[in-house]
Amino acid sequence: MNALASSSPDSARRSPAEIALIAAAYAIVGLMLVLPPVLVFTEALRSGLGAALASITDPDALSAIKLTLEMTVAAVVINTSFGVLAGWLLAKYRFPGRGVLVALIEIPISVSPVVAGLVWLLLFGTQGWWGEALNRVGITIAFATPGILLATLFVTFPFVTRTLLPLMEQQGRDAEEAATLLGASFWRILWGVTLPEARWALLSGVLLTTARAMGEFGAVSVVSGHIPGLTETMPLHIETLYNGYQSVAAFSMAALLAIMATATVGMRSLFEARIRREEPRKAETAGGGA
Amino acid sequence: MSVLIENLTRQVAGGKVVLDNVSLHVPDGAFVALVGPSGAGKTTLLRAIAGLDPASSGHVEIDGRAMEGLPPRERNVGFVFQNYALFRHLTVARNISFGLDVRPRASRPSRAEIDAKVAELLTLIQLPDLGAAYPQRLSGGQRQRVALARALATGPRLLLLDEPFGALDPMVRRAVRTWLRDLHDQLGLTTILVTHDQEEALDVADRLVVMQDGRIVQDADGETLDATPATPFVMEFLGETLRFPGVVSNGLFVPADTHVAPFSTTAVDGSTEALIRPHEAVLRPDASGGTAKRVGRRGPLERLAVDLDTRTVEIERPVSAPPSGLVVLEIAQARLFQNGKPAVENARLPIDAVTTSSDAIPEPV
Question: pTM here?
Answer without folding.
Answer: 0.77
